[in-house]
Amino acid sequence: MPIVESIDLVKQYELGDQTVNALDGVDVTIEEGEYVSIMGPSGSGKSTFLNILGCLDTPTSGRYILGGEDVSTLDDNELSEIRRERIGFVFQSFNLLPELSVTENIQVPLFYRGTPEAEARERAAKLAEDVGLGHRLKHRSNELSGGERQRVAIARSMANDPLIVLADEPTGNLDSKSGREILDILDRLHQEGKTIVTVTHDENVAGRTERTIRFRDGRIVHDGENGGSVR
Q1: Residue 231: which pLDDT band, with cuts at 50, 70 and 90?
Q2: Phi, then psi, of 68 in degrees rounded to 5
Q3: Which CATH superfamily is domain 4-225 in?
């Protein structure tokens, strides 16, 4: 069963007396375990598409099916539950809570899920270890480098064992070495079977993925497999 199916997806915005089609009939299928990059110039629709995939926005028309469930018409509370249970997010700006430690930041999704504290703390510690931060559990985010903060963000995205991980320019705020290390972690998650979709403007990042979808003017202009990893 595909993880993602978008069927004739349309997203319109009203700007004064004009209607802008941010998405204009987008059909995409992403299978379980795929690693996909989304590319396109500013205003092409790629970020709008990612927001709909992440249930942060809803389409004007068309259908979005996530893990076999049509989520196109769910209300805000239902979408919030879908985000909490099925989707892991990794943002360019990390979106960590500065007053919390590494462990506590990773635990946030588990807190909202109602996971018992001892179980949540144990899982957070393991996830931190998995991304190479087992020695930094008690450090707050302002004591970490950019690369370390993004490692925390990836660990947090995995806290609820999501159906899909959505990464929005995950290396955009990092130096090249830290960026490569983050991509190595995403590669490993993909090898472990995770479905990952990343928005990027960087051809080298896209080259690490199996497939690239390119947007222009709200439409898909290219959808194809990549020839091999760029290291």
Answers
A1: very low
A2: 90, -5
A3: P-loop containing nucleotide triphosphate hydrolases (3.40.50.300)
